[in-house]
């Protein structure tokens, strides 16, 4: 459905009226035949029909397009009264900004936020209503901390409420202790696995170092043997030299 023409100030061009509801276009779409409709109106129409309600030309949802820019500009410039005019709002603004105004309008009728309260009240008077609403929440005057939500709650048993609160606190504390215990055990297991992994890595490194040491010792022995052989050969050569 579109915007009621009675809300608008001055003349509204016929081309800016929905061809179905005959109100001013709301969230408009245009058919290939250039007839314009409110989105909700044309979608509802096409559920049961497959043609334009004006000239009966065949149309489909996929053929609908946004309104021409110049028509959108003309539409957005229209001036209209706030929908809360009957409650006292005198605001007149452009169609382009009316939704933003009405979302924040002090004369809007809104529901009381207290559970169980069915009162509809103007936004500007909400704070005053909440202060005296019979469904407002407040603490027990006896000091037990219980939140009173309705008239029946004023007869509650403070001792029972305190016991319930104590049990809840005890249960919460037990849960937190168990959570802390599980977290510590998890951390210890993680550290233990890390240490085992580190130990394994160090053990492998030690074995590798031992293997390298063994190869070095073998190389040293080979070098010493080669040196002895070389010394013997020099001594033999020296002996043969003297004989000659």
Automatic annotation (TrEMBL):
Give one Pfam family, short name only.
zf-TRAF
Q: List zinc finger spans: TRAF-type.
A: 101-144
A molecular function GO annotation: ligase activity
Concerning InterPro entries, the annotation shows: Znf_RING (IPR001841), Znf_RING/FYVE/PHD (IPR013083), Znf_RING_CS (IPR017907), Znf_TRAF (IPR001293)
Q: Which Gene3D superfamilies match?
A: Zinc/RING finger domain, C3HC4 (zinc finger)
Looking at the record, the residues that make up the TRAF-type domain are 101-144
- Please cite one Gene Ontology biological process associated with this protein: regulation of canonical NF-kappaB signal transduction
- Keywords, A to Z? Coiled coil, Ligase, Metal-binding, Zinc, Zinc-finger
RING-type domain span:
18-56
Name of this protein: RNF41 ligase
Organism classification: Eukaryota, Metazoa, Chordata, Craniata, Vertebrata
């Amino acid at each position: 459905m579109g915007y009621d023409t009675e809300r608008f100030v001055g003349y509204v061009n016929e081309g800016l009226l929905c061809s179905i509801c005959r109100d001013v276009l709301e969230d408009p779409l245009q058919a290939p035949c250039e007839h314009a409709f409110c989105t909700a109106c044309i979608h509802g129409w096409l559920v049961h029909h497959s043609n334009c309600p004006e000239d009966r030309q065949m149309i489909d949802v996929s053929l609908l397009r946004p309104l021409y820019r110049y028509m959108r500009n003309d539409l957005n410039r229209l001036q209209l009264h706030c929908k809360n005019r009957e409650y006292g709002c005198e605001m007149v603004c452009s169609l382009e900004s009316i939704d933003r105004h009405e979302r924040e309008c002090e004369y809007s009728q809104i529901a009381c936020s207290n559970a169980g309260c069915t009162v509809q009240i103007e936004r500007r008077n909400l704070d005053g209503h909440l202060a005296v609403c019979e469904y407002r929440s407040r603490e027990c005057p006896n000091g037990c901390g219980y939140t009173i939500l309705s008239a029946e709650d004023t007869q509650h048993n403070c001792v029972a409420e305190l016991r319930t609160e104590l049990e809840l606190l005890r249960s919460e504390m037990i849960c937190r202790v168990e959570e802390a215990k599980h977290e510590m055990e998890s951390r210890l297991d993680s550290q233990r696995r890390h240490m085992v992994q580190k130990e394994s890595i160090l053990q492998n490194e030690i074995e590798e170092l031992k293997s390298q040491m063994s190869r070095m010792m073998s190389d040293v022995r080979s070098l010493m043997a080669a040196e002895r052989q070389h010394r013997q050969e020099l001594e033999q050569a020296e002996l043969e030299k003297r004989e000659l």
